[in-house]
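Worked example

This section walks through a single chain of length 234. The input is the sequence exactly as stored; nothing has been trimmed or padded.
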Amino acid sequence: MAQTLLYDGLQSCPYLPGRVARLPLYRQDRRLSLDETDARFASAERRVGGALYHTACPTCRACEGLRVPVATFEASRSQRRVVRQWGADTRVEIGPPTVNDVKLDLYNRHKQSRGLADPDDVAMTALGYSAWLVSSCFLTVEMRYWWRDRLIGVGIVDLGRTSASSVYFYFDPDPEVARLSPGVYSVLQEIELCRATGREYLYLGLYVKDCRHLTYKTDYRPCELLRDGDWRRG
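Given that input, the structure is written out below as tokens.
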């Protein structure tokens, strides 16, 4: 596999305070095939633009890959209620990822309102957005969520032959939209995309038991966790 090491230093853990993380980042020098993509997903590798990283922390193994087996997934009562809330006022479009002023404004408002921005962060630019979410070493699609003819959310999803990986989702922080639980709805729609296209798994990235920002991922059941090199029922 042709790849170039971009970074392999120690850093503060983004998930657990006081921990040290090591996340080797490799630029992929070509587009990966669908089968290669499935293998990277199965190893819990994550994408940033055209680069991939994995956890290799020196003293911690708290991060675990998490995936949802599509065939056996059953939406909970609360998840079914979310779907009903969206109703006929909703449409979801799927196409190649792009960047424009509307999406940039939506992304930046989401980041600021959800407390995801550091104090010294500057607004995301078209160049930065493209480098992170549009440029890809995988086959990547964008899911656009419209509600009452208003763009209220965008999800970036990578596709393999038999699986898909949820990369990032952002949405309008307006309370009228937030009450619809757009994050839940987006995961359910990604599971439906997998089902409709015959894909077996939706990968939801990393799960850390003691990180409250990541625990929601086990709400999609049954799920599997990557532990000691094996995928096991979570």
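What to look for: The first strand starts at residue 3 and ends at 7.
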